[in-house]
Specification:
The complex is a heterodimer.
Chain A: H1 14-31, H2 35-63, E1 67-71, E2 80-84, H3 86-109, H4 113-135, H5 139-158, H6 163-194, H7 199-205, H8 210-227, H9 236-242, H10 245-270, H11 277-300, H12 304-320, H13 322-326, H14 331-366, H15 382-396, H16 402-416, H17 420-445, H18 464-482, H19 484-488
Antiparallel strand pairs in A: 1-2
Helix pairs in contact in A: 1-2, 1-4, 2-3, 2-4, 3-4, 3-10, 3-14, 3-18, 4-5, 4-10, 5-6, 5-10, 6-8, 6-9, 8-10, 9-10, 9-12, 10-12, 10-14, 11-12, 11-17, 12-14, 12-17, 14-15, 14-16, 14-18, 15-17, 15-18, 16-17, 16-18
Chain B: H1 16-42, H2 49-56, H3 66-74, H4 76-93, E1 104-106, H5 114-137, H6 145-161, E2 165-167, H7 172-191, H8 193-196, H9 207-238
Antiparallel strand pairs in B: 1-2
Helix pairs in contact in B: 3-4, 4-7, 4-9, 5-6, 6-9, 7-9
Classes of the chains: A mainly alpha, B mainly alpha.
């Protein structure tokens, strides 16, 4: 079974471990209710998890081909296969690094036993869900993985414990449920028409018939709800801003990317015969709207975390430029666009997680995160503001950060495909992001006039590890900028049909 | 965790514009729905090859019931993740405060009706036996962990409704019950690797026994989580919800 040219190496046995390890960690943290030990074990688990994924990364490069692991030994279509290609390994890499940093940050952030006893099991279940989604090669299995991601995210948002966060969590739950059901219905239609759930087999048999259009439309609506593309983004800002800071970091950095990843797989690979150029352009159009609306709302946000959440809405818009850039402009432009977007996902994941961590540290230290009261905050929160600045530079797309390379690659692919209007969108989006980032930075660097003791000084000392974690991720965005080739070379190992047989990227 | 919400009933008057929007939405949804129906009717159903493959492989699966074979052998990975979903719900709904009681606590002060007690004495053992039967029969006829767990949970909920017994969901034993299904599933998935070289690939001779072990653990977890959910919902409904402070935005008050 499976696609040709697939070699089984011993390192492939790490694939089930990537999912099993977080599941075991969840069980472990549930049983060990002591908050200090849960935190220590979690950091240990996160380190092992990182080592395992790094091993997978290096072995995949050595093997140079797509991996398939037949769970239960049945093989598709009877059983379920784990599939790893360049796109999914890049997302797995982003997940691992963010998980390592967020785990360490959370160990210092959550203190009360009421929170830790819930947070650690839910956190590891979320990680298991993310890894399962990135490794899945089966349409129904993706539904279950998305369900794990959605439900654990909802519970994690509700951990903040105040009414606004719980309201946001419930809304998130309902939206997520609606999205899941739409997706499931689409998958049911595909199964009815083509008799298999395996993505690789589906992509070989799917045709551009009305039933495929209907299935793709349902799948897209479901996943767009979960990814929060512009008209369907209403649930994201309150949920991402109201959640505890480490949860916000994971939600914005990883969770929305999981549903985007599935969406990209369906449009570019599984259901590509049904994807018309108009529909792909429409997705890009909504993406462009999201960029502008997200930046506009971020400029008007009153609270720092809300600003960062709206910035996520805007940055998600860039990801959707993938679709028009691949539409009917030849495989080489398409592969460049996919590489650019995969790289952008990693760059945004690092930068946004760092930014939420910095915002969380500032909020915890000051006791508030109203932007107007952040005047002069750099004097007592220098590291957090520095983290925010580097992450902001990456979001704007300034060199030498990962965000710069990502935008550069996107611009290149827009030029190659001759669609100048997306160039304008990308450049304007960068300028608008600069406005809201500098709005915060200018305030933070402005000295307080006189002694306004009413606006409050550093009241709560915060653990050094929290600041260090955010800072490490900010450094990682810069390191990513210098190691672009290393990451992009993984895109040569690709499953997606139209990329097969293209020459390596420049 | 979710019991802090108050729902306000703000019945808005239907204005003309909202009626217009409703009408437009109805038309749009109707159009989209009929297009969906048309596309389903127009498409041919795929040949049931996969079902045939499943039936052909059933002798290798260790059970005779095709549903159980799909759920616990061919697509066991899906079921494993579904049990993880159940654990998420359980963790999200765990009560907040810890009473310092053991796993089960009897409250003898609650007055009990003799008829009720008589009924319970009849129904509970019967439900437990029925649950065990459903679990066992899943190997060759409709049944299995989910059905058995639901029936067992029914027995537990009936016991809770008498209000004489209480469960403390934060004890280690309670948390162990919640996690048992997932833990056993993951451990079985891993322990077969040395024998067959693949996770979740049961050796043919032991497949039936391994599936039974997983199902017993899953039944207990499913029943326990369902009882937890019902109990928490009943508590929520009974508790007078008090207004909470809305100003502690995002900050974690200990």
């Amino acid at each position: 079974m499976g696609a040709p040219g697939i070699v089984m190496t011993s390192a492939q046995h790490f694939l089930p471990l990537v999912i099993g390890l977080p599941l075991l960690a969840a069980v472990f943290c549930l049983l060990v209710s002591n908050s200090r030990w849960s935190a220590r074990f979690s950091i240990l688990f996160a380190s092992i998890h990182t080592l395992v994924v790094m091993q997978v990364l290096s072995s995949l490069r050595d093997s140079g081909s797509v991996w398939r692991y037949e769970l239960g030994g049945w093989g598709a279509p009877l059983g379920i296969d784990l599939v790893l290609d360049g796109f999914s390994v890049i997302l797995l890499f982003a997940t691992t690094i963010v998980v390592l940093c967020v785990t360490t940050y959370s160990a210092a952030y959550f203190k009360t036993p009421q929170q830790t006893s819930r947070f650690w099991p839910l956190w590891w279940l979320l990680v298991a869900g993310l890894n399962a989604a990135f490794l899945s090669g089966d349409a129904f299995n993706l539904y279950v993985a998305l369900e794990i991601i959605g439900l654990s995210s909802v519970a994690l948002v509700a951990l903040a414990g105040n009414v606004s966060a719980i309201t946001a969590a419930l809304r998130y739950a309902l939206v997520g449920l609606l999205g899941s059901l739409c997706y499931l219905m689409g998958v049911a239609l595909l199964y009815r028409a083509y008799g298999t759930l395996d993505l690789a087999l589906l992509s070989q048999t799917v045709q551009g018939t009305p039933i495929t259009w209907a299935a793709l439309a349902l799948i897209s609506v479901g996943l767009l709800l979960k990814t929060a593309l512009l008209p369907l983004h209403f649930w994201l800002p309150p949920a991402h801003a109201g959640a505890p800071a480490p949860v916000s970091a994971a939600l914005s950095a990883l969770v929305v990317k999981a549903s985007f990843y599935v969406l990209a797989r369906f449009w570019l690979d599984v259901c590509s015969p049904a994807a018309s150029a108009d529909a792909l352009n429409l997705l890009g159009f909504f993406g462009a709207c999201a960029i502008f609306w997200g930046c506009f709302a971020a400029c008007r946000a009153k609270r720092l975390k809300l600003l960062v959440a709206y910035s996520t809405v805007a940055q998600l818009g860039y990801l959707f430029l993938l679709f028009p850039l691949t539409a009917a402009y030849g495989p080489s432009a398409g592969s460049a666009a996919l590489a650019a977007v995969a790289y952008l996902i990693v760059a945004h994941a690092f930068a946004k997680a760092a930014m939420f961590m910095a915002a969380g540290s500032i909020q915890l230290a000051c006791g508030y995160d109203d932007i107007d009261r952040l005047r002069g905050v750099v004097s007592h929160q220098p590291i957090s503001v520095f983290t925010f600045a580097i992450a902001g530079a990456s979001l704007i797309g300034l060199p030498p950060t990962g965000g710069f390379i990502a935008k550069w690659l996107l611009l290149n692919s827009a030029i190659d495909s001759g669609q100048w209007w997306w160039i304008a969108v990308i450049l304007c989006g960068g300028l608008f992001s600069a406005i809201y980032i500098f709005r915060v930075l200018i305030l933070a660097f402005t000295a307080r006039q006189g002694e306004q003791s009413s606006s409050g000084g550093p009241t709560h000392p915060i653990p050094q590890t929290m600041m260090a974690c955010g800072f490490m991720l900010a450094i990682a965005t810069v390191a990513l900028g210098f190691n672009a080739e290393w990451l992009l070379s993984y895109m040569d190992i690709n499953l997606i049909g139209f990329l097969a047989g293209t020459e390596p990227l420049p | 965790m979710f019991n802090k919400l108050e729902f306000e009933e703000n019945a808005k008057k239907t204005t003309r514009t909202s009626r217009l929007i409703k009408g437009l939405s109805a038309v749009t949804i109707g159009l989209l729905g009929s297009m969906l129906v048309l596309s389903v009717i127009s498409a041919e159903k795929a040949a049931p090859e996969l079902a045939q493959t499943a039936l052909d492989s059933i002798s290798l699966s260790g059970v005779e019931n095709p549903v159980t074979a799909v759920l616990l052998n061919f697509r066991s990975y899906d079921t494993l993740l579904e049990i993880a979903v159940l654990l998420i719900v359980a963790v999200a709904m765990m009560p907040e405060s810890s009473r310092n009681t053991s796993l089960t606590a009897a409250n003898s002060r609650v007055p009990t009706h003799p008829v009720l007690i008589g009924l319970i004495r009849c129904v509970i053992p019967l439900s437990v036996i029925l649950s065990a039967y459903l679990l066992w029969t899943g190997a060759y006829a409709p049944g299995g962990a989910f059905q058995a767990g639901a029936v067992l949970a029914g027995a537990g909920v009936a016991l809770l409704l008498v209000k004489r017994w209480q469960l403390n969901y934060l004890r280690l034993s309670a948390r162990a019950f919640m996690a048992l299904g997932l833990a056993v599933f993951v451990i079985v998935a891993a322990t077969v690797i040395p024998a067959t070289g693949r996770a979740l690939n049961y050796p043919a001779d032991y497949a039936g026994a391994l599936i039974l072990i997983i199902e017993v653990a899953a039944t207990l977890s499913i029943a326990f989580v369902l009882i937890l959910l019902v109990d928490q919902l009943l508590n929520m409904a009974n508790k007078q919800v008090k207004p909470q402070d809305t100003q502690t935005e995002g900050l974690d008050k200990s």
